[in-house]
Amino acid sequence: MRRSWIAVIVPVLLAAACSDPDPVKPPEPGNPATSTTTTPEDVQADSADGDAICLDNPTAIALINGVVLTVDATDSQVSSVLVEGSRISAVGDSITVPEGACVIDLAGRTVVPGLIDSHVHFTRDWVWPGHFLSQIEDARSTQDVLDGIAARVESVPEGEYITVVGGYAMNAFALPTLAELDAVAPDHPVYLQASFSGPSAVNSLAKSHLESNGLDTIAADGSIPVDNTGRTPRAIQILQDQQSNADAERAAMEYMTWANSMGITTVIDMTSTGDAEMAYRLWDGGDLTVRMRLRYGGLGTIEATIQSVEAGLERVGDGDDMMRVIGVGEFSVGGFGDTSSDFAAGWSEIAKRGWPLAQHSLRSAEHEAHISAFEEVDATTPLADLHWSLDHSSEVSPSQLSRLAGLGVGVGVHNFAYYGSFGTGAPFRDIIDAGVTAGAGSDGRAIGPLDPWQGIHHMITGRTISGSLVNDGQQIRRLEALRMYTMGSAWTAVEEDQLGSIEVGKLADLVVLDADFLNVPNDEIDDISAALTLVGGVVVYDDNSLSSR
Fold first, then answer.
1. What is the pLDDT of residues 387-409, one digit of tens each?
2. Residues 223, 199: contact at Cβ < 8 Å?
3. For 274, how many CA atoms within 13 A lie in the half-sphere containing its CB?
């Protein structure tokens, strides 16, 4: 079922337990004073109906009677998992549940590890101005967009902006006209922008406001042409200049809830393009509901790259389980399409510092230049333990993959091809067959959806949002795709011992799905979302379809 246009927001702030550095040991079995051994059948009759789940931050949460896809080394499946504090303390078909634990009867639902976006511009996108229409990622037609706006006006104060900046299939349908937008949002200014720089569309209220602030490129039908006059289109600059700190923080909180509603629990952020200060403020206040793993780059120079990473490390220090600076991305030497810079000289400085690196690499010629530089660096500083990756990897060949495997360098695979942009998608089958570790992500959201299930759908089917088969022969199995979004991305974050699978001692990032991932038809995979999301054992999203006792 397509997810609701209006997300269910659970106002939960993460407790200090989310940052617990020590694994919680499983309870001692057989102690009747503190625990009971529970099988799924024991609680089927005990569940209450319709209440919010485990919102009192109980010391233990037991999820039973489900299908738990552990994504461990053997892809084992069990029925139950126990969380104590911020960590997983038991996994199996029969678990010992401490007295007072919150028990959730899954009634056969699927549980997966929290999803990790391996390459995203989260800190850029979460402070775009206005109230986001995030659900536009699910739109398949202009009418879907209009229906979404009509629903969104019910939750946005009159006179305040409803906005979209990327994150939808601009190749699949036309932007609404001014008259169409006026009909569904007469009392709210509306601004819709495709990709990084447009084209865009507005309604009458937004047209009047933007023109009064000097924007002179809006046509009578509300359309705005592509604006490449600066790094940010002028319309967005106008709105950002008028955005208050409170509005920016509200937008960031809403964006995290949207991510949690799809099962995203960690993002690896290309922070040099974003607003790290907002991330720091939310972290300082204990308000993050998505784990932040920040990568810094210097937008082309190694000196600026090193300076930006060091500044991030100075601000965060060692961080904690919710926030860490993890290295460099996505431009440290050179820029878009560059194949002639002295990559090896700059990257040697990164390797000497032991920092992970994710290098933007879209086309075959870029792949060759970057892999050759990796090999040159590896000759003096081995890369095998540094968790470097060639990100995007759209045209990487089997021979290039063999070279990456020999270096111990991974790849990042991203879902913008689902929208029919930037080629056919990565060679997923070849990557797996070559034994190269792949972390999956969105590169969202200007050119692709944040929604991981749309990316997973593309990996499995080779099809775009419109159903076109563009990546035939590179399709992978469902559990292989899930692994890329979990353990593969955990490797990218250098946290495969803490995240990415449902195993004892790992952080309790768990997602109960609203559909049977292993058995739904292929054309319904991109409709999947979360029914319940836990980050470090704390409920951060709940669609109220489950109950507990």
1. 999 999 999 999 999 999 999 99
2. yes
3. 32
